[in-house]
Amino acid sequence: MYLIIAWRILFLTMLGRAHPSLSSECVFETIEWQTAYIMAHKKPPPTKPPALKETLKMIAQLGGFLGRKHDGDPGPIVMRKGLHVLYEHIKAREIFQNTFAVTYG
Prior knowledge:
- By secondary structure, the protein is an all-alpha fold.
- 62% of the residues lie in helices and 0% in strands.
- The chain has a single domain, classed as Transferase Inhibitor Protein From Tn5, Chain A, domain2, CATH 1.10.740.10.
- It has four helices and no strands.
- The longest helix has 25 residues, at 76-100.
């Protein structure tokens, strides 16, 4: 199980570096990239999904990536932490949606 999770994290990290302009919906579900956008920008997500590199950077920031000028691309460690936080936020978003019938997107 851990091998599959580790492979996905490394795959996302390397795909973001190789094809940064790829649409986020190629590898993320709508609720995933929308929740990452909401958490990073504190406003409703756009109708068009952002580029993969931008979404990966938003997820990495949830994991502690600072994104300074000379930091480079996020690595697998902050991606793992960011994805963990992202899925916790998705779980909370779904609970609020089911309880109060309020959501973005």
